[in-house]
UniProtKB/TrEMBL annotation:
Protein name (record): OmpA family protein
Ranges for domain OmpA-like: 79-205
SUPFAM superfamilies (alphabetical): OmpA-like
Xref: Pfam families: OmpA
Key words, A-Z: Membrane, Transmembrane, Transmembrane helix
Transmembrane segments: 15-38
InterPro entries: Bact_OuterMem_StrucFunc, OmpA-like, OmpA-like_sf
Length: 213
């Protein structure tokens, strides 16, 4: 009897250690499972946010297309990823910032639909000027470089839109010079594509941040 009792007592710590081990493993498994579930929930939340973001962008694109249906149908402007493009030759003579009569008429036709579009949302219109890669000094000494030419063209378009009824609080001008070309400047046809003005609705907060030094 004494030997049996001794065997029971000697085996007890082993069973207790095994139980502790199983408890620890179970706890670790539960923690791992909780971590996996949390990761899956986070991924599902991000996916839902991305889907909603794309739906909002698609709705924005459709709204802009509807607002600009007439000038888009005439082929005088383009719309790509929310950017309204106008060929430089419709607005200005080569290397000039003086607006052509047909350019003013086009801008005038855009004021009402753009104003209505912007009034319905927290956005502001960014008017951007772009040039080709040719050095401006050899062609027109009025401007120091392509940055200045693109800036003056953007300002001309901005001021014209204001003159034709666009509230000044709804837009601002930006210059990109020869940067961000649509196509490589390999020939005159390509350079003509890159000489352009673009208008894009952007969140008002983005404009505020850009204005800070």
């Amino acid at each position: 009897m004494l030997d049996h009792d001794a065997d029971v007592e000697s085996s007890a710590p082993t069973w207790i250690s095994f139980a502790d081990l199983m408890t620890g493993l179970l706890g670790a498994f539960v923690l791992l499972l909780v971590g996996v579930m949390a990761t899956q929930l986070e991924m599902a939340s991000k996916l839902e946010d991305e889907v909603q973001k794309r739906q909002v962008e698609e709705q924005k694109r459709l709204s802009l297309e509807q607002a600009l249906a007439i000038p888009l149908a005439s082929g005088r402007i383009t719309l790509n990823n929310g950017r309204i493009g106008i060929s430089g030759k419709l607005l200005f003579e080569l290397n000039s910032d003086k607006l052509e009569p047909q350019g003013r008429q086009l801008l005038k036709s855009l004021v009402l639909p753009l104003r209505s579009y912007l009034q319905s949302r927290e956005e502001i219109l960014m008017v951007s000027g772009f040039t080709d890669d040719q050095t401006i000094k050899s062609r027109n000494r009025q401007f120091a470089d392509n940055w200045e030419l693109s800036a003056q063209r953007a300002l001309t378009v901005t001021r014209t839109l204001i003159e034709e009824g666009m509230p000044s609080s709804m837009l601002f001008a930006a210059a990109f010079g020869q940067e961000q070309p649509l196509v490589a400047n390999t020939n005159e046809k390509a350079r003509a594509q890159n000489r352009r003005v673009e208008m894009a609705p952007v969140p008002k907060a983005a404009n505020t941040a850009a204005a800070k030094p």
